[in-house]
Amino acid sequence: METDPDRSTRTSRSPQPSGDPRWVAMFYDPSSASWRQAAESPDRTPVLYAIGEMTQVKRARGDEAAVALWGPKDGEWQRFDPSAAAAPTEADSGAEAGSPAEALSPAPADGAARPGHAKLAERMEDRRHQVLMAGLSKAGLYDLTPDDVTAVRTLVDRVDETTLRRVAHWMAVAGAPAG
User: Fold this and answer.
1) Contact 87, 106 (CB under 8 A)
2) Cα-Cα end-to-end distance for the chain
3) What is the value of pTM for the model shown?
C-alpha cells in the first residue's frame, strides 16, 4: 500500500466557530495540529486587516500561513475564501445574488453602514502618519513647511503602511551619523 509523502504537511479543514455567526479568522497551528481563532468582529474589515497582519508576521518568521475566514450569511455560518475577501476582483461584481463573493463586496462608504469601519480607517491613517513622521525625525527633518505637510498627507492617503515603513527606514538610515 502506498502512502502519500505530503500527508503529514496537509492541514485539516477549519472547523466552524462556535457561537452566533460573526466574522472570524482561524489560523492553523502546525505544532498542535489544530485550528485557533485569531480574530473576531461583527464587522468584516478588522478581521481582514488582522488576517493580513498575522499572515505577514507568520511569513516573516518563515512559517506558512493557513487561514480560514468564517462569516454570517442569512443568519448562518458561511466559510469564505480569505484571498477573495482581501482583494475583491471585478469578476466578483458579476457574481450571482446571495453568493459568498457578493457578501464580500464592500459595503456603502458611509460610516453607518459598517460600524467601526470609520474608526479603524482613522486609526490606520494615524499609524501611517506616525510612521512617516518618525522617519522624517530620524532623518533630521523636524520643521515641516506647508508643502511638506501636504506631501506627508498625500503619502499617508495613497501608500500602504508597509511601504511607508520601508521609506521611513531609508530616511532613518540616511539621517544616521556616519560611523
Assistant:
1) no
2) 65
3) 0.46
Residue 37 vs residue 132, higher pLDDT: 37
CA separation, residue 77 to residues 23, 74, 124, 143, 152 (Å): 9, 8, 29, 53, 42
The 10s digit of each residue's pLDDT in 90-119 is: 333 333 333 333 333 334 444 444 455 566
Contact indicator for 161, 124 with CB cutoff of 8 Å: yes
Nearest one of 115, 91, 110 to 102, comparing CA atoms: 91
d(CA 87, CA 96): 18
φ, ψ dihedrals at 40, nearest 5° = -150, 150
Report the amino acid identity of residue 61: R
What type of residue is 68? Answer: A
- pLDDT tens digits, one per residue of 55-79: 877 877 888 888 999 999 999 999 9
CA distance 21 to 39: 13
* C-beta of residue 24 within 8 angstroms of C-beta of residue 37: yes
Write out the three cell numbers for 88.
Answer: 475583491
- Kindly give, in sequence order, each residue whose CB lies less than 8 Å from that of residue 128, ignoring residues fewer than 6 positions away: 155, 156, 159, 160, 161, 164
* Amino acid at the residue 67: V
Quickly count: other Cβ atoms within 10 Å of residue 140's Cβ.
11
What is the edge-to-edge ordering of all strands in the sheet holding 76-80?
34-41, 23-29, 67-73, 76-80
